[in-house]
Write a structure and sequence with these properties.
The complex is a heterodimer of chains A (273) and B (182). Helices cover 33% and strands 17% of the residues of chain A. With 273 residues, chain A is of the alpha+beta class. Chain B has 182 residues and is of the alpha/beta class. Chain B has one domain: 3-Layer(aba) Sandwich (Rossmann fold), CATH 3.40.50.700. Helices cover 31% and strands 19% of the residues of chain B. The chains are: A alpha+beta (273), B alpha/beta (182).
């Protein structure tokens, strides 16, 4: 009992029942946790350099998010702000202190020197985009996500006229019996965004099945059937390609008004600076 | 100097890309001034009569005739351009690439919901008919292709800019709005 008194500076009556003690402990833990959080939030601003531009962000922030705050766009397909990074697509590869590293899984630190917009990295990223195009069945003219697709937008950004690799045309199955959405594995780029964000009753709606070359995205049809319209729309929006689509919805935006018809991906970030 | 000679063809395509060539509007008058057309659906010349400078091909290869046609273009054209998604990656015809040919043919001629009179399950088998390939191939997987113009159809400005760049020997103008995959 004396131990608790000393630790948390709270006077406990000697005869305190055990559950009361536990209450005090958990509230004290909460105080410590928020204190640590505050410390992280308040101080620890770090300076780093991207392509010669001096940037500032909170220490520990992932590089792609920190760069975006400073008006520098690093292309990314498997990440968005606030998401636990997965580093699965590698399109965000930057040269950090001389080494190629994924920008979405690397926390920024004081004095980091980052190369982002260089011919070498552009070529590398273009290659990744081309690989993603030939590894799946990406029929842009027949896809409902066309114009709003991030993979396609990166193809536009890097002016991919033709992938340098042979098309593999892998056989993939479409899962159409999942409530308000359907899952088209032909277009999946295995970014794991849906696994990390779409939940129903605290459970994952999507999951990977198989390993290596047999890896594929899978959907829990029972859970998916419970998705509301809003959740279905969010699931569709979180998918960087046209793998998750809402049923009875599609091609409802005319060509010319879609997200990437006139504006290059990342231009909204670069405009801020 | 004589005018550069242009040939065009539509293989496994829908002629949408040719429509997009016509979509250059009044610039087509300039084009006629600038180039001479040889084998092309535009002037209906069926066979090559001379060596061409530029060959523009829409559509992928889905049967033996497409392949013969493509080989003839490679032989008779100095520069070959893949025009549109079908030429570049097979396009919509390539949606059959994951399905065995036998299954496709049975669906088309025997088991499809709109087939009712083919009780004997007769399949087209005439010497005149080209043989269907195991899958739809992008052009550059069969012959060497020099340039690619994506789009479904490629924007008229993209085609025009490419032709102007080729004919004048200047660098091609590629604004963001003209390179699209749909």
């Amino acid at each position: 009992m004396g131990l608790f008194n000393n630790l948390f500076g709270k006077k406990l009556p000697v005869e305190t029942p055990l559950d009361k003690v536990q209450d005090t402990v958990s509230s004290a833990k909460e105080v410590i946790k928020t204190d640590i959080q505050k410390e992280v939030n308040m101080s620890n601003k770090v300076k780093f350099i991207i392509d010669g531009k001096e940037c500032t962000a909170e220490k520990g922030m992932m590089l792609v998010d920190a760069a975006a705050e400073n008006g520098v766009y690093i292309p990314v397909l498997c990440h968005m702000k606030g998401m636990i990074p997965a580093g699965s697509c590698r399109v965000c590869t930057c040269k950090i202190n001389g080494r190629n590293m994924a920008g979405c899984t690397t926390p920024v630190d004081e004095g980091m020197k980052i190369e982002n917009d260089t011919p070498e990295l552009t070529e590398l990223r273009k290659t990744i985009v081309e690989v993603l195009f030939v590894e799946g069945n990406h029929f842009c003219p027949a896809c409902e996500k066309s114009g709003n697709c991030e993979l396609q937008a990166l193809g536009y950004k890097y002016q991919m006229m033709v992938p340098r690799f042979p098309y593999s045309f892998p056989p993939k199955a479409v899962e159409a019996g999942a409530g308000k959405i359907y899952l088209d594995r032909n277009r999946c780029i295995m970014c794991k965004k849906c696994i990390r964000t779409v939940h129903v009753d605290g459970k994952n709606v999507f999951a990977f099945r198989g390993r290596g070359a047999h890896l594929e995205i899978n959907i829990d049809k029972t859970l998916a059937a419970k998705l509301t319209d809003k959740q279905a729309q969010e699931a569709m929006d979180v998918c960087p390609v046209g793998s998750i689509l809402r049923k009875e919805k599609g091609f409802d935006e005319p060509i010319g008004t879609r997200k990437y018809d006139k504006h290059q991906i990342g231009s909204e970030i670069e405009k801020v600076s | 100097m004589s005018k550069p000679v242009v040939a065009t063809a539509s293989l496994a395509g829908c002629f949408g890309c040719h429509m997009s060539i016509l979509d250059i509007d009044d610039r087509i008058l300039q084009l006629v001034e600038l180039v001479e057309f040889n084998k092309s659906p535009i002037d209906d010349i069926k066979t090559f009569t001379k060596m061409c400078d530029v060959g523009i091909i829409e559509g992928g290869c889905c049967n033996s005739e497409n392949v013969e046609n493509l080989l003839a273009f490679r032989k008779n054209c100095k520069i070959l351009i893949s025009l549109g998604e079908c030429a570049i990656m097979g396009g919509l015809p390539a949606l059959r690439n994951g399905i065995p040919v036998e299954e496709c043919i049975n669906e088309a001629y025997c088991d499809g919901p709109t087939v009712s009179l083919n009780k004997e399950r007769i399949l087209p088998n005439d010497d005149e008919l080209p043989m269907i390939l195991d899958k739809v191939y992008p052009l550059h997987e069969i012959v060497k292709i020099d340039y690619y113009l994506p789009g479904c159809p490629p924007r008229a400005d993209l085609i025009w800019n490419a032709l102007v760049a080729l004919l004048t020997g200047s660098k091609m103008d590629l604004p963001y709005e003209v390179v699209k995959f749909d």
